[in-house]
Structures are given as structure tokens and as C-alpha cells.
Amino acid sequence: MRYHPVYLDLRGRRCVVVGGSDVAQDKVESLLEADARVTVVSPLLTTALGALAETHEILHHPRSYRSGDLTDAVLAYVAVDDEVEQTAVATDALAAGVLVNVVDMPRLCTFIAPAVVRREPVVIAISTGGASPALARRLREELEAHVGAEYGVAATILARLRPLLRAAEPDPDARARTFARLVDGPLLDALRARDAAGVDAILRAAAGEGATLGALGVALH
Fold it and tell me: Taking CA 118 as the corner, what is the angle to CA 21 and CA 210, rounded to the nearest 5 degrees?
């Protein structure tokens, strides 16, 4: 089976997590990071999920799954061990056109969850197509070792630099060449070394005197 890689915009969209375990908590936290509206269906919750329910950051139904719990949902995670409940959620999701992932049960899934490296706003997702989660984890660990926080800072800088370059250079091909020089040049090394003066010099050379970390509102930590 081949999967189509995609990133979903879940802002304000209803998502359902069936289960209240540590695994379910991981799914809930990931959905909240995407600004989804999260409903958790489970008789029991981890301490962290209980705290989220108490502060109304999630909606909690303290019971087992019932047909209809997926109404208006766009995505669901199932993190329970009961095969009857797993199958019921997956069947309802398929009928309702809701994307569903049943943890450790690929045959019931319409999508699989990748291993993820986060260097916000850069997000790298790794998948083996379900063949080997262990290998996906190993790849994630290797990428975490080689892709540092400087990539996230670089992405933020380049995003904020775009309107300055657009105003200064009307030719889109010329702007693309400037961005390519920044990405392929010493910018990442300077960010990795936390060399603010060096970064400022690189940015000014690329986009003019007004292009500095301070002007872009970016701080090196």
C-alpha cells in the first residue's frame, strides 16, 4: 500500500480521540498544537488529560465510544485495546467520511501517523508506509541529531524577509535566486553559531540595510 503524504489544516476543526491513555494523550497534544477542537471519549483519563478537561481545553465524554460521537468530526484517533470498540469507530468513520487512525491496527486506518521532527515552523514527517515504526523512529532520531533549531529560525527569518524582498525586487526570478543564495550560503552556519552580527551582515547583503534580526523581530537564543 502507498500513502499520500499531506499536512492538514485543523484549525478550529473538530477532532475526536477515543481513549484516555498516554498514547491518547500524545494524540490530543498533537491536535491541540494544530489548534484543533478536541473531544476525548474515555471513561478514564491520564492526569494531564484530566487537567485539560478541567480547564475546558478539551471536551471530555467520560464513557466508552457511542455511535454518533464522530458527528461533524474531520479526523479521529482510536487509542484503545478493545477490538470491538476499535472496529466500531473505524466503521463509523468510514461511513461518515472521517479520517481515522486506529493505533497499531493499520487495516482499520485510513491514514497513518508519521514520526515527527519539529523545528517550528519546520516540521519533518517520516513514514515507512507502516512497514516498520521502529525504523521510522530511528530515522527521526538521526534527523533530530542533524537538523537543529537553526532551521526553524531560518524559516522564520525567510518568511519575514519575503515582503522586504518583494518590495525591493519586482522580479520573482531574482527574488528566488536571493533566497537560494541565503539557503545555500552561510546563513545556517551563522545561526548555528548564534552569530547575530554575522547573520545581520548576511541579511543586509541579501536584502539591504533594513534587513536585520532586530528589524525582522527575530531573536537568537
Answer: 145
Q: Are the C-beta atoms of 78 and 103 separated by less than 8 Å?
A: yes
pLDDT of residue 46: 98
Name all domains of the chain by residue range, CATH numbers in brackets: 1-113 (3.40.50.720), 149-216 (no CATH)
Paired sense of beta strands 99-102 and 14-18, if any: unpaired
For 131-167, write each residue's pLDDT tens digit.
898 999 999 999 999 999 999 999 999 999 999 999 9
**What sign does the CA torsion over 71, 23, 122, 221 have?**
positive
Alpha carbon dihedral 69, 74, 79, 80, in 10-degree steps, equals: 30
- Nearest-angstrom CA–CA distance, 152 and 157: 9
* Helix, strand, or coil (residue 220): coil
Residue with cell 470491538: 84
Average pLDDT over the chain reads 96
Per-residue pLDDT, 93: 98
Cα 211 to the center of its chain, rounded Å: 29
Rounded average pLDDT over 183-199: 97
Chain CA centroid to CA 33, Å: 7
DSSP 8-state code for residue 107: G
Give me 144's grid cell: 533530530
Q: Which of 9, 86, 76, 79 is nearest to 39 (CA)?
A: 76
